[in-house]
Amino acid sequence: MYQNPTNAYTSMQKETLSGRELEASVLTRAGLMLKQVQVNWSAPDRDEKLLEAIKFNQKVWSFFQAELSDPENPLPKNLRQDILNLSLFIDKRLFEVMANPDTEKLNIVIDVNFNIAAGLRTKPE
User: Fold this and answer.
1) φ and ψ at 75, to 5 degrees?
2) Which class is 19-119 in CATH?
3) How many C-alpha atoms does 18 have within 13 Å on its Cβ side?
4) For 40-67, how does the pLDDT look when each residue is reduced to its tens digit (9 = 90+)?
5) H or E segment at 85?
6) 61-94 CB burial, b ≥16 within 10 A, e <16
7) In 10 A of CB 119, how many CB atoms?
8) Domain residue extents for the chain
9) pTM score of the predicted model
10) Cβ atoms 34, 53 nearer than 8 A
11) How many CA atoms lie within 13 A of 63 on its CB side?
12) In terms of C-beta density within 10 A (0-12 exposed, 13-18 middle, 19 or more buried), how is residue 122 classed?
């Protein structure tokens, strides 16, 4: 039995979501973490929450980079390359935010996370 209800929910969610739904869920979480920091920019624990959100986003995008670099990945090569280029942009932006925290710099990362998540939730034809 799970001791923490959040862990139980997360585990159940992993078992029931498809790959695309799981990726969308993780990207949404990454965007929401950054958005929370942005909305609460003056909070006393902002630096801690910002670092936590950045680290989570870096893990998410590193996972995508690894998956997209795999020659066995079924996505078309051009699409993989476009997403890899986007991930490099995200990495660069996250490092910029770590070096010089600025609420405005988070907008593009939040938007990319939410837009890709929305695209993943769209049923392929």
Assistant:
1) -70, 150
2) mainly alpha
3) 6
4) 999 999 999 999 999 999 999 999 999 9
5) helix 77-99
6) beebeeebeeeeeeeeeeebeebeeebeebeebb
7) 12
8) 19-119
9) 0.82
10) yes
11) 11
12) exposed
